Structure formats: C-alpha cells, structure tokens
From TrEMBL:
<feature type="region of interest" description="Disordered">
    <location>
        <begin position="38"/>
        <end position="62"/>
    </location>
</feature>
<dbReference type="InterPro" id="IPR036942">
    <property type="entry name" value="Beta-barrel_TonB_sf"/>
</dbReference>
<keyword id="KW-0732">Signal</keyword>
<keyword id="KW-0472">Membrane</keyword>
<keyword id="KW-0998">Cell outer membrane</keyword>
<protein>
    <recommendedName>
        <fullName>TonB-dependent receptor</fullName>
    </recommendedName>
</protein>
<feature type="signal peptide">
    <location>
        <begin position="1"/>
        <end position="39"/>
    </location>
</feature>
<feature type="compositionally biased region" description="Low complexity">
    <location>
        <begin position="38"/>
        <end position="47"/>
    </location>
</feature>
<dbReference type="GO" id="GO:0009279">
    <property type="term" value="C:cell outer membrane"/>
</dbReference>
C-alpha cells in the first residue's frame, strides 16, 4: 500500500500531533526487531475485540461507531448466569469508567516490560511488525503508569453477496418468486495499523483520599481496496427459468440484455480517539465517596474513492446448485476481456464523523446497622452528553461521449482466485492510477453538480443525546442470605438535524432551513436546480424512566445457593437512526433512511437459579430467565421503485413487544493434581426461546440465537501455558424483510482461537496465538438456505511475540 496516500488523509486532520506519539510509533515498530518478552505467571485474560482493532472481523469493522445490542447472542460472554445490573449501573450498562483498564497504582512500584511481535494472515501472506511497552513507577505520593501498543496487519477477505428480487413466477403471474438479481463476487484487501496508549497518575493525599487522572489515546489507520464483479441479472430480460421445489425460488435462470458492473474502491480510514478522566476518591472501612469528570473526542475520517464500469448487452444464466456460491455465466462475451467494460461513474467522498462526550458522576456509600448487621446504602448522580457531527462531501462524475474502457486503467493487475479458489474474478482497476487519469483526461469525465449536491447532503447531520440520572441503592449480607435493592431515575433528551430532499412540489423547503449551497471538494455549489428542493430538518425526543432492581441470594447449604434477580434496562436508538435523512445510492440501487419516531427499547429481566460449588465438581450454575421486551429495534428491508428501477430500502424500526426466555448453565473447574500446575476449564450454554411481534406478524427476536455455547480451556505448567477459546451459536434472524420469505437469517457461527506461551527465564518469554483457526464463513441467507445473500471468508491470523520484563 502507498504510504504517501495514507499521509494524504492524515494530513487532512489537525496538525500538531505531539512528537512523543511519532517517536513512540518508531520505537514500537523497531521492537519487532529488537524486542524481547516477559513471563506469564498467571492465567492470560481473554483479549477484548478492541485490544487489537487490526484483527477485528469484517462485521465488527463496520460497527465501530455503533452502540452494542445487549440482547444479541454474539455479545453474550462466557460468564456465570444471571448477570445483574443494579441501580448503580446505567440502564444500558454505559459507564465511562469502564473505558479505562488500569487499576490504582501500587506503592513502591518499579517495573517495565517490552514486547515485539509479528502478525500474519494466511491469505495475504504478509508479515507485519508490532510491539508494546508497559511502565510503572512510584514516587512518594505519586504512582505513575504508562502502556503503549502498536499493532499492524495485512489481510485479504473474500466474499459473495446477493440481492434477491420478488417477481411474478413463470407461468403463474399471481404467484411471487425470488430471482437472484445481483450476485456479487468480491475481494477486499486491508492494510491496517493501530497505536494505543493508556496512562494513569494517582496522587495519594492521605490514607483515605487520592486523586486520579487517567487517559487513553488511539490512532487507527487502514487502507482497504475492493475488486467486485456484479452480474446485474435483475436488469435483463428473463428468457427461461425454473421454479424450485419450494415454489418460491427461481433456479437455472437465463436472461438477455443484461449487464455487468465492475466496481472498485480504495477506502482510507483515519481514526483518532482521546479519552480523559479526572476523579477524587475517599475510602474507609465504612464509607466511600467518588466524584469524577470525563471527556472524550472521537474523530473518524474516511476517504472513499469508488469507481464503476459497466458491460452491456450480455446474455447470462445462473445456477444455485451450490447456494453458498451460485455459478453465474455469460454466454455471448468473455468476462475476462475488459475492453468492453466502459466507465460509468466515479464518486470520491470524504466523510468526517466527530463524537464529543462529556460526563459527570458522584457516588457516595455509607455503612449503617440494620437488624443487627451492617447494611450499605449508596446514592449517586450522573450526567452524560454525547454530540455527533457528521460532515460529508461527494463529487459525482459520470461518463461523456468520449468514453474509456477499464483496460486503460488496469495497470499490471491480473485475475484473482477467491473464496478458497472456488471461483475467479477478472483483473481489477489499479486504483492508484485513478486520480492521475482523471487529472490528465478531464474531457472523459462529466462533473454533475446536482447529483453531487444531493449525495453530499445525504450524509450531513448532527445528533445529540443527554442522559441525566440519579439512583439509590442498598445491600446487606445476612447470615444465610443476601439482598440488594435499588431504584434509578433516568431522563433522556435527544435532538437531531438532518438533510431532506425531494421534488419541488413536495414542499421540502417549508420543513426546515432551506439548503442553499454545499461545499464539495473546495467548490461551492449553489442550489439553483429546478427539479428538487432540500432543507435541514430538526427533530428530537424526550423521555424518562424509573428503573427498579432487586437481587436475592439464599444459602441453602454449605455448597448450594439460590439466586434471584430482577432489573430493568433501556436500549436507546443509535445516534443517527433518529435523524431524518434519506440516502439514495444509484450504483448499488439501495436506499437507507432515518426513523425520527424511534422509541427506546425497554427490557425487563428476571432470573432464578442455583449455584453449586464442590471440590470435585467445581462450580456449577443453572437457572431460568425471562426477558420482557417492548419497542425492540429491527432492521427493516423493503423495496421501492424509483423511475422504473427497484431499490432496496433499509431503515430501523420499532417492533411492538416480545420476549426471550430460556435456560442458562455454566461450569468452571480447576485441576491442580494432574502433574501440571493448573488446568482451568469454563463452559457456558444458553438456550433462548424468543418471540417478537410486528404489526402484521410474529418473528423470532432479531440477533438472538436459540443456542449459544462457549468453552475456554487453560493448561499451565511451570514453563508453558496453553489456552483455547471456542464459541458456537445457532442461526439467528438478522434483518426483517417485507414478508417471511425475505427475512435474512445469519447462519450458525463457529469461532476458535488458541495461544501457546513459553517462559525461557524469569524475564523472557514468547507467545504464539492463532485467531479464527477454522476460517468458518460468516454466512446469511434469505429465509431458505438456498437463497444465500452473504458468504464471507476472513482468513486465519497468527501472531508471534517476545516479551521481556525488568
């Protein structure tokens, strides 16, 4: 990848990055050659996905600015059943203190650790260096800590995508059938680096009082390129087709007057995150007080350079004998001949998303006597505010009569085998030639100001969410039982501002502030177009909730305990989902739009279970749970016809109500008499029976699998340690279609990661880890498994590290 282009995007950011960051990057990279590493004497914790953003799944990469869904199966961890959110905790589980991982500094601390590593993906076959530094030092009342980590990885991800269209079945116009309209075969390449820093300073004022300043910083960059071949069968004329055994799927289809879209992009992402926390703590045996403030700024800048070329007049057919990779064939042309693939459009886009967060918190707790035993009573007040500002400009270039073919910008690229060599896509555009070719051949590009105006404003919006809350909480340990009761009040206020456009007769100009001009790549485009109007429209919402919580534990015997809990949660909409906007993407024939009337999801959680502990059995937990859910969110997918072309329309909507109920089990055991230092096993299983009610039908709860199984194993000896982590879940509903046969189902998920570490001496050790060993594909399908809409292979990644502590 070209470092010059990466620097170009970074150069768009504010100048003045501290020298220590640049120097640190050099040091951490150099560690890949000179570093050594330390012994691990305790069990290695499972890394959070954010620990190494360069290795995140494609699914997570696209969710980087999203809130997490607490009822989704993929976010359920390998933990004891009956997870409890007391009144102390924000209803969404949000607490800015959870962003910081360094604990209070130790007195007389004086230690350092350095690490060097190499990362590798089996598909890209490129080794990339990284490293880390950890420092801790105490000076009288001061306790200082500093951690820094640099990761890098080059990856290749292959995937197949499809759009299925609902049409009249052959010879049965009254019956609807699904046509594989737009099968896509793609390869993405990622070149990613990430530098993460954490620091903390504690000042011990007295035996009971200390001040804390803590910060963290992340600088993340990636360059992603895509080579995609899309057969636009849905744009052709059907000559023949067969209706499958399910009476709803068209197979062995042949079409004429079809097209191919060859799509290529270069996407550069530069993300800077800075978080700061300042607090004061007072702690004694019978009381505690904390006050803190928090500030965070997250800037995500993305430069997107998408090119489209089109082949026309094609005769094609497809077969779904292998649904995970349908075979598509052109019979009257050679798809590997790019001389008849003509430039269609180019849409360079720069999008900058800025999130600014503020929070204040006070917590107080005091021990009293109640019924002869100590009882802790606590209270607190929290205020947090998040503002999102999304800026965007897009230049739309279309073809002229003086057209050019893909052959002229291929460079030295060649055809490439993808999907584990199951299919081959033609040579793609050399994307580094794009801007140069545009600059030298202006006469072959038509700049479209009206479309540039429309597509730029679609991604300009602001959104703000303010949450004010207060709580009271009390708990007590009795002789054989424990109780905790709490009550939390939360008030949420939101405000949004987004762009709306439409025909002049729709009265858009009267909805808000008329958009009179927009800046696109330094060019000001005035809104003088007669066929549409555009305006910024404001919106907002305000609501409040009273959230009780109750936990009871009763010791039935020395080894058995009963547990019961009840608590309520909120799940607020995404910051941009409530913005009134409508984003139309003509090349992909897709539309996304906001839902200004979204309500927060409320979740009422019940759990009852038993906990059994025995030396020979370990810890065995089992329980039943019931979650009552109202106004749940789901991704709706419907179709809409614009100017005779069918578009897929997606938006987030509220369902009515529903439930999740089932059984949770957990087992944990440690073995120390096997000749090894330790064998530690933890396993958990969750069964979920779900129902969610829409206005017209009932579905399974979106993103919740019926079965979820997780297994962690640690085997440790004096010199070495082995860990393995296995997770499996059954299929789950991802997106809700216009009817049941167009619901999108995510197939079962299986992931397996493992690592092995070896200690050479007291100070030096090495570690080797493998992620996604099975390279199990991330697949989804449209109601029936023969209608696959996604099939993605992410590859296996490996990391070898050396660590030295002194």
């Amino acid at each position: 990848m070209s470092s010059d282009t990466r620097k170009g995007l970074r150069g768009l950011k504010a100048v003045g990055t501290p020298f220590k960051l640049s120097l640190l990057s050099v040091i951490l990279t150099a560690l890949s050659v000179t570093g050594t590493t330390s012994a691990q004497t305790t069990a290695t914790p499972v890394a959070r996905p954010s620990d190494d953003a360069t290795n995140q799944s494609a699914r997570e990469r696209d969710r980087i600015l999203l809130k997490r869904n607490p009822i989704a199966s993929e976010y359920q961890g390998n933990e004891t059943p009956g997870r409890f959110f007391s009144a102390v905790t924000d209803a969404e589980g949000v607490d800015f203190r959870g962003q910081f991982r360094l604990s209070k500094g130790r007195a007389a601390a004086h230690n350092a650790e350095i690490e060097a590593n190499l990362s590798y993906q089996d598909v890209a076959r490129q080794y990339t260096p990284g490293g880390s530094i950890k420092l801790a030092k105490s000076f009288d009342r001061w306790r200082l800590q500093f951690n820094a980590q640099r990761n890098s990885l080059e990856r290749i991800v292959d995937f197949y995508e499809a759009r299925w269209l609902s049409i009249d079945a052959p010879e049965a116009p009254e019956q609807q059938a699904l046509l594989l309209g737009f099968p896509r075969y793609s390869q993405d390449q990622f070149d990613t680096t990430s530098t993460n820093m954490q620091w903390r300073a504690d000042y011990v004022l007295s035996q009971h009082t200390y001040f804390t300043y803590e910060g963290m910083s992340t600088n993340y960059d990636d360059i992603a390129t895509r080579n995609r071949l899309e057969y636009q069968i849905g744009a052709g004329t059907i000559d023949s087709a067969e209706l499958g055994d399910d009476d709803s799927t068209l197979s062995d289809v042949s079409v004429s007057d079809s097209r191919i879209r060859r799509y290529f992009h270069r996407m550069e992402t530069a993300r800077d995150i800075h978080r700061h926390r300042l607090g004061v703590n007072y702690e004694t045996d019978t009381s505690a007080f904390e006050a803190g403030i928090y500030y965070s700024r997250w800037v995500n800048e993305r430069l997107w350079l998408p090119w489209n070329f089109v082949d026309q007049g094609l005769t094609a057919n497809y077969s779904i004998d292998s649904p995970y990779l349908p075979a598509t064939t052109v019979t009257n042309a050679d798809v590997f001949d790019t001389s008849q693939s003509w430039f269609a459009n180019y849409r360079p886009t720069l999008t900058t998303t800025t999130d600014t967060d503020y929070a204040l918190v006070t917590d107080w707790s005091q021990q009293f006597k109640f019924a002869g035993r100590p009882v802790w009573v606590g209270s607190g007040i929290t205020w947090r505010n998040k503002e999102r500002d999304n800026d965007n400009y897009r230049s739309v270039y279309t073809a002229t009569d003086n057209r050019f073919s893909l052959t002229q910008v291929l460079g030295s690229n060649q055809a490439v085998a993808i999907m584990e060599d199951r299919t081959t896509i033609p040579a793609g555009m050399d994307l580094l030639l794009g801007e140069t070719y545009l600059a030298a051949n202006h006469e072959q590009f038509n700049f479209n100001p009206a479309q540039s105006f429309l597509e730029s404003i679609q991604d300009i919006y602001t959104s703000e969410e303010t949450v004010s809350s207060a709580y009271i909480d009390a708990y007590q340990q009795r002789a054989s039982w424990f109780w905790r009761f709490g009550l939390r009040y939360e008030k949420t206020k939101t405000s949004t501002r987004g762009a709306v456009s439409g025909p002049t007769e729709a009265g858009i100009a009267n909805l808000g502030d008329q958009i009179t001009s927009v800046d696109v790549a330094g060019l000001t485009i005035e809104e003088t177009f007669s066929h549409f109007d555009a305006a910024f429209v404001e919106g907002g919402n305000s609501y409040q909730h009273l959230l009780p919580s109750l936990e009871l534990r009763y010791q039935l015997s020395a080894s058995t305990r009963f547990k019961f809990n009840y608590f309520e949660q909120l799940m607020r909409p995404q910051y941009f989902d409530t913005v009134r906007y409508r984003r139309i993407n003509p090349p992909t024939r897709t539309i996304t739009e906001g839902s200004p009337d979204l309500e927060a999801t409320t979740i009422i959680n019940w759990f009852a279970g038993l906990e059994y502990t025995h030396t020979h059995v370990g810890k065995l937990y089992a329980g039943v749970y019931y979650n009552n859910i109202a106004d749940f969110f789901y991704d709706s997918r419907v179709t809409e016809e614009l100017d005779g072309i069918v578009y897929d329309v997606t938006r987030v909507e509220n369902g009515k109500d529903g439930f999740i109920r089932g059984v949770q089990t957990y087992w944990s055991q440690q073995f120390t008499d096997t000749g090894l230092t330790l064998i530690d096993i933890t396993a958990s299983y969750t069964y979920s029976d779900t129902e969610a009610n829409l206005a017209d039908r009932s579905i399974a709860m979106p993103e919740r699998a019926e079965h979820r199984l997780m297994l962690n194993l640690l085997v440790k000896n004096n010199q070495w340690q082995y860990t393995t982590n296995l997770a499996w879940q059954s299929e789950a509903l991802d997106d809700v279609g216009a009817d049941a046969q167009q619901d999108t189902i995510r197939e079962k998920v299986l992931s397996w990661n493992q690592s092995f570490s070896w200690r050479f001496s007291e100070h030096l050790s090495t570690k080797f880890s493998l992620n996604n060993i099975l390279n199990y594909p991330d697949r989804s399908y449209l109601s029936e498994q023969k209608r696959v809409v996604n099939n993605l292979y992410s590859g296996t990644t490996a990391k070898l590290s050396l660590r030295y502590t002194f």
